[in-house]
Amino acid sequence: MNQDKPIARMREKMGLTQVELSQLVGVSENTIANWEKGGASKWIRHLGRLCKILNCGLEDLALEEKTQEVFLRDLTPAILDTLKSYCIALLSKDKKAVVKIASFATLHDRSLRYWLNQVEQIIEQNEYDLHRKIDCEVVVNSLILQNLSIQLSYSLPSQVTLESFRDLVKKIRLSYDFLKRYIRFSKEHFSRKLILQTRYLSVYIIGWEPGQESYMHHHGNSLDAIWVVEGEMTHWLLSPEECKKENIPFEGCESGQKILGKAETFLTGDWVFIDRLCAHQIANLSKRRLTTLHIRFGAPPDDDNWEVNEHEPAIIWQQIEHYQVLPA
Known about the structure:
By secondary structure, this protein is of the alpha+beta class. It is built from twelve helices and nine strands. The chain has three domains: about 5-60, 434 Repressor (Amino-terminal Domain) (Orthogonal Bundle); about 70-135, no CATH class; about 160-295, Jelly Rolls (Sandwich). It is elongated, with a radius of gyration of 25 Å.
């Protein structure tokens, strides 16, 4: 009868009325009624007693929901703020704050509970790794990228359109405090630093000194997004037909050419999206450094312009979540 109201269901299973349960817990009947409707009126400090009386655990009080539906939800600013607060509480060993946030999520927000569990897993996996410093920026931004990877994985790469890719990518909110850890510059050539690598998704930062540029090239059947983190980017784009006509090489080929045709200028905060088989070229024609974030769905970049620490693997494949964020 009360399948969608777990507290009511557990109470009825114990043969208790709302009045009887309120007396055992030490709250009013109206408070019990509010809890059963999903209200959060001062329930946290009574949660342990409630579970003991109903002979259940926290997970038994959670609303029923299909796990898959969790993955399809956006990481809203409100959820991200809660994840940061939860991460701070875990790392600072603030047990009271941890219980407060976790208990609310258990009773009222299955989606939030899932993401809190992911925060716990990332911290636990890195807690004893002396070579990898874990903090809230790393944890929260890792979850943002994980969510993007999961949502893209629901379709075969060939079935993801540029429009759907654009819609997903423009929702992510990676913080500058996280990204700046990966920014590198080289006087010899633009410097690329890998952030995340899965089978189909590559996320990386490129640092461009003034005057540095790429050759005109294409990425085959990959979809690409470029976000100007800082600076001014000059960008050339050719259609698949123009690419074929000009015999533009695939990325990584030794021979390349520079196009002197029409270009567009993009500033800090701008996005550029590149469809399959299109060719493009990037240049920093300004007098300031340029930093760009690249998100590629398809084959990873194939050239030697990587900034890689000898102690870091180029690709980490984690069996549980099928992804791992690389240390800065």
